[in-house]
Design brief:
Elements: H1 16-42, H2 54-76, H3 80-93, H4 100-121, H5 130-158, H6 172-187, E1 191-198, E2 204-212, E3 215-222, E4 231-236, H7 239-245, H8 273-282, H9 286-296, H10 305-322, H11 326-358
Length: 397
């Protein structure tokens, strides 16, 4: 099989949907390969995330590289260039929007990556040799470009069949009437947002349930529902009907454009809160508990749980701000304030931990343990069922 091929004269050219499916199948296969590799690499690490079996880790990555090359040969190599050609044709016909320049850049990189993969595969090394292993390792970064970004080419190919425009738009009078109804419902808390996406023109579309006289109907909003000026552009009996009429969604953006899902850095060693809590319970001296607290607030490469929590909250604030909506900016402000509070709390815990360690105290001997034989839990004992998560919106059908 050649790395990339064109249809032979007289053969049927694949449809846009088939080209899109080839990229989607490859992406799915790469996700499976990634999960399998993560499981294999987890077996090479200790409970704190440190690699203790480097040879096994190297073998797991070599299997990953080989499986990825085979997936590309099977699913994407025969169709990659044709898919990119179709994607460019569709992209050139889209209405002007802010995201199109970025999509052009992605297609350019995919085209260059495809050419580089073809050049490497056209000079295959001897099967099972070290040269083949090195060749597969060299291909991995190029294959992950397709795995990370091929969805843009795939989505553009899907749009060749249409779906960029609303099929049954409302009249100006209907739009105004339904918008007034929806605004009134929003004021009294009877407009429940359920789903949102961006259309090809870069405009946000949101589905919502409008409750009127104890009855619920699906309405589609164009614009930011948290800011003045949004409009109702459609009303439907159910979400399926809305999906058939409204402009198709385009892929959402990313928070960090330079990160790769398939090339994440190795996880830093860390101690869990449960381990630190056990250290406190098992501790006999103030120094034992002081070390556990200092582990929770440790900074740097092997950061402690409280520092990681601050990073989580601050990164979530960046995400909320990147939504570029009124409510997103408001929530970003709240999360940023929480991040500052966690920073203050982290410093307080660090100072308290140092003060506790400086006491050099130990627990008094009258706190004697209770000596008894404790039965082991049954092998098939199930953990307790967690309570339901409160505060999630309830979707009405």
């Amino acid at each position: 099989m050649t790395p990339t091929s064109s249809p032979t004269p007289g053969s049927r050219r694949p449809s846009a949907a088939e080209l899109s499916d080839s990229a989607s199948t490859f992406t799915l296969r790469m996700s499976v390969i990634g999960c399998e590799t993560d499981i294999a690499l987890d077996r090479t690490r200790d409970r704190h995330g440190r690699t203790v079996h480097p040879a096994a880790a190297e073998a797991a990555r070599a299997r990953r590289d080989t499986a990825a090359v085979e997936a590309y040969r099977t699913h994407l190599a025969p169709h990659a260039e044709a898919l990119l050609d179709v994607a460019r044709l569709v992209l050139d016909d889209l209405p002007p929007a802010q995201h199109l320049a970025g999509w052009h850049a992605v297609l350019d990189v995919l085209h260059a990556t495809t050419a580089q993969i073809r050049r490497i595969l056209e000079r295959p090394a001897a099967p099972g040799s070290e040269d083949e292993r090195a060749q597969h390792a060299a291909l991995w970064p190029h294959l992950t470009v397709w795995a990370d970004h091929g969805y843009i080419a795939s989505d553009l190919a899907d749009q060749r069949e249409g779906g960029q425009h609303q099929k049954s738009p409302l009249t100006d009078e209907e739009r105004q009437t339904w918008t007034e109804m929806a605004v009134a419902a929003q004021r009294r808390g009877a407009l429940e947002l359920t789903e949102s996406w961006y259309a090809a023109d870069g405009q946000p579309i949101t589905l919502a349930y409008l409750v009127e006289d104890d009855e619920s109907i699906v309405v589609a909003l164009r614009g930011d529902p948290g800011a003045p000026g949004w409009q109702v552009i459609g009303h439907y009996e159910h979400e399926y009907e809305a999906g058939r009429d409204l402009p198709a969604p385009v892929p959402p953006g990313v928070l960090r454009p330079d990160l790769s899902r398939h090339n994440r850095p190795a996880p830093a060693p860390e101690e869990s809160l449960q381990d630190l809590l056990c250290d406190v319970v098992d501790g006999r001296s103030a120094g034992d508990v002081s070390n556990a607290l200092l582990g929770a607030v440790q900074r740097g490469y092997a950061a402690g749980p409280m520092v990681r929590l601050q990073e989580l909250v601050e990164t979530s604030a960046q995400f909320a701000s990147a939504l570029e909506t009124v409510q997103g900016r408001q929530i970003a402000g709240r999360l940023s304030a929480l991040g500052r509070q966690i920073e203050f709390l982290t410093r307080e815990v660090h100072e308290a931990a140092e003060d506790l360690g400086a006491t050099v105290a130990v627990l008094p001997p009258h706190r004697t343990p209770v000596a008894r034989v404790r039965p082991r839990p049954a092998v098939d004992t199930s953990p307790p069922v967690p309570p339901p998560i409160a505060g999630l919106p309830v979707r009405h059908r």
